[in-house]
Amino acid sequence: MINLHGSSRKREGVTGDENIFDIKQGVTITFFIKHNDDRPRIVKYSEIYGSREEKFKWLNNRFLSQIEFQDVLPQSPHYLFIPLKTSVEYQLFPSIIDIFEKYSVGIATARDKFTIDFDKEALIDRLDKFIKLSESDARELFSLGEDAEDWKVTLAQEDVRSSKLSDQKFVRITYRPFDVRFTYYTGKSKGLICRPRKDIMENMLNENEAIVTTRGSKPEPWRDVFAADNMTDIALLSANTSRSSYHFPLYIYEEGRRLSNIKTEIIENLSEKYGQKISPETLFDYIYGLLNSPKYRNKYEKELQRDFPRIWFPEAHDVFQKISNLGRKLIDLHTKKTKISGMLGYTVAGDNIIRKIEYVDGTICINETQCFVGCSQEIWDFTIGSYKVLEKWLKSRKGRSLTSADVEMFSKIASIIKATLQIQETLDSFIGFL
Fold it and tell me: What does the alpha-carbon distance between residue 153 and residue 143 come to, in Å, rounded to a whole number?
């Protein structure tokens, strides 16, 4: 395998590296040999960086036998064909999936625009009409398109009708960062929601919190963590279908009992390590704090881009507790439990309709006359997952008229981001020795 690199989608840190073709994806030359047994095989690996001209010259002047190859043995869990450049210490940390008992990706509706709404009353009205219409009329009126394998108009109608459009089934969903909406949740697969992830998401109908992350962020910098106290959408952190958002709840409810979703042996091991009882809640907060540390993210960026995050634990309990305390502050901020005042000014003359979003020198304009003022570049650029938070929030409402509550909420989100940046700086002071 000869890796010619040249990807414009992947930050490889090599100045002047070019693709041999006019495409964004990197290129390799690979020779495959088919064997009649399943024994592990060595991959012969070589690579070259440089300009397109340099790469062509290098290839033209070599026979295969003249190329120096490195032996690579693909190994579990990823079976990579390239040398694994990873920190040995990082591999010794437990993965987040080894800490929580149960987890799953977020719900998948197959029809977001139909099944999810900003306004509960609008959703009630839509579903009430939906179940009174014939299949063909419902499909046409709501522009539902052709049926999918796991979502069909007739099955969705049957699901809503059989549940009698119960008010209790209209629930909140954390759809995108700081963007909580409403959906109708029966828990039935291939119903109104094609994949409701019932075993996990029903636990969020009770008092609960969850850490949401991804299984790698390649090729983007890793910022893939958010907290939720509702059920969550599969695209909460990224619209990329290969980068699903995974939901790790703090509690599991069984037969009316609230149980910790964190493995007992993890709690016992940490309690022994620190010489005092560690609660599941404290560990939950610690994980969220750690995953929000820029220094942690930067040090293990390549590893975080490949798989679920692994969790480092400090030797000293006081450091663990400080990070946990800051993690709790972040969770309360991100689930909007913390009371906070908005920091942005707003020019009120206009119709409040978002038509064109533009940021210039601290000002965020939503149309020709109306703008939010007082937003720093750092706050505007703040990203969770693959979304620039403030820009994504506005883009999701393009064409809508902002209510006074919307204006206030947008201003508060900017304040939450400012507070988050301050906490992240404090976090780094505690784990600066990483």
Answer: 11
CB 1 within 8 A of CB 26: no
DSSP 8-class letter at 371 = E
Which two structure tokens, joined as six digits, stand for 363?
């000002």
351 forms beta bridges with none
Question: Longest Cα pair distance anywhere in the chain, in angstroms?
Answer: 74
Alpha-carbon gap, residue 275 to 316, rounded angstroms: 10
What is the C-alpha to C-alpha distance for residues 19 and 35, in angstroms, rounded to an integer?
32
Of the pLDDT bands very low, low, confident and very high (cuts 50, 70, 90), residue 367 is very high
One-letter amino acid of 304: L
- 317-334 and 404-430 helices, crossing angle to 10°: 170
Taking the C-alpha atoms of residue 252 and residue 100, their distance in angstroms, rounded to an integer, is 11
pLDDT digits (tens, 9 = 90+) for 267-300: 999 999 999 999 999 999 999 999 999 999 999 9
Backbone phi and psi for residue 269, each to the nearest 5 degrees, phi listed first: -65, -40
The closest of 182, 187, 191, 174 to 121, measured between CA atoms, is 182
pLDDT grade for 2, boundaries at 50, 70 and 90: confident
- What are the structure tokens assigned to 403, written together? 């209510």
Give the contacts of 412 (CB within 8 A, at least 6 positions apart): 336, 340, 341, 342
* CA 246-250-256 angle, 5° bins: 120
Please tell me whether residue 57 adopts helix, strand or coil conformation: helix
Confirm if 226 and 247 have CB atoms less than 8 A apart: no
- In the numeric block, the tokens 């987040």 are attached to 96
The residues that bridge with 383 in the sheet, in sequence order, are 388
Structure tokens at 170: 């209209």
